[in-house]
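Dear colleagues,

As part of the handover before I leave the project, I'm documenting each prediction I ran so the next person doesn't have to rerun anything. This entry is a single chain, and its sequence is reproduced below.
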Amino acid sequence: MTAAKLRASIAACSDRGVKNDNEDFFGFLIPGEPQLTLKGITAAIADGMSGSDAGKQASDCCVTGFLADYYSTPDSWSVKKSGQQILSATNSWLYSQGQQRYESAKGMVSTFSALILKSTIAHIFHIGDSRVYRFRQGNLEQITRDHRVWVDKEKNYLNRAMGIEPHLEVDYHSFPLERHDLYILTTDGVHDFLEDKIIREIVANGEEDLQKIAEAIVARASINGSDDNLTCQLVRVEQLPLAREDEVLRRHANLPFPPPLSPGMVLDGYRIEEELHASKRTQIYRAYDTRTNTRVILKAPSVLYDDDTHYIEHFLHEEWAGKRIQHKNVLRILDSDREKSCIYYVTEYIEGQTLREWMDNTPKPYIREIRKIVEQIARGLRAFHRMEMLHQDLKPENIMIDNDGVVKIIDFGSVKIAGIAEITPLDHQQSDQVVGTLNYTAPEYHLGQRGTVKSDLFSLGVITYEMINGVLPYGQDMPEKPDRLKLSRLQYVPSFHKNPMVPIWIDGALRKATAINPQLRYDSLSEFLHDLSTPNPEFLGPEEQLPLAQRNPLAFWKSLTALSMLGNLILLYLLTR
């Protein structure tokens, strides 16, 4: 049985009305797969501002630019991030063109409203006084608000629009879709001359033909004396996908699991050389690609899960995430033009050691060595965050250092992708299971909260503390199944208790990065890196007031011993006299 797909019907009517030119613009796009699943269906409407020098060009630019650019943003981005990035860039261009070409704040100005249907969710972007209505089960509701200020009964002006100011503030909200929802996008030439109850009557009494309904709405507004351009666009939800259906990640799910692999066997041109790692969940092999004459890593799922669709989905999710990040500090998953005979994926082969092995082999590293490693890990994390992904399982075992000193993040098993989460929220966090590894997982995950960039920063902070001090920042392993009470009892162990050579300001940076409360952590990786290399006055004041015995126990006892020896020498001198 074929799974249900998102399907919508769209119609529109636009008329110049009593004006000489039509400065309204509308557009829509229903893409094919995979973009239908990854990006959804988009409809947009814009109205060039009256009195604007180039309102028609502005409305055209807003709609055509949004439709083109939205489908060019990374698949991993959420709808919200994609839309806001595009509209911000478009606004900057419109504003600069208005200033340069027309030397006016009203050079290229337009309203803009967009509706995006993705999976089972509707997303709205809105600025200006165009409108989006929703007609559901006989009720009509305006779901945008007009950015219009009334001076008196006769005079009003737009206080927000595309191209009017250098900085843009866009209304965004999202909500669940229902089958047969009808969305109505209009410009003010329509809704200023039609009461909501009239629009509802036209829609409720209309035929199934959306085009006729759109034309009827525009015609009624014109009859009522509209003195502006008139545009109405209708989007009706005909069919919704299953909430957890994701054909993009499951396109290989019907392939069999690979057979037991041993050295010398050849799978799709990959000759197995050695099994490097085996667990209940995966097998990892070093292999030789006979087609490209290169050494690679082949990762295969465990046969123990060959009937577990949830596990298969997660395994495919790893490959999907990894292929979308191209960065020297992140393991590269290799593309292949060959047909797969079973489920597996292939990555680059790294000659080197894990960070855990490096820590075991380098028990007392120099701080400059640690900084170099941490900086590279942070650059790799930034590559995830730019794609709106969270790693969620950063630990020394998931980091490699090659023979040239290049650090790479190597695991994608717990990665959260914002764009995919909108399609089908992969259930990494079940009721009895938390993403990541206990000692390195951010505390908020244990409390059932969503992760953020600060969650990955916590894991990096723990790793940095461990490299410097050889132990964990809270003195012991995290308690099993930590709850709010257990977490509140944890006490950060200052570095001088473990390594008296650590400066107070570096320990201050570690303390802030590993704070149990995410609100007390750094807002960005760059802030943490800066404070690891440059003394932050915030960490110097209070700590310097501590007694020497607490600030630096080793220095305290050395000083006490020296004073004691000096006292004994003086006493001996006096006695011998």
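The first helix runs from residue 35 to 38. Confidence is low (pLDDT under 50) at residues 244-248, 425-432.

All the best with the project,
I.
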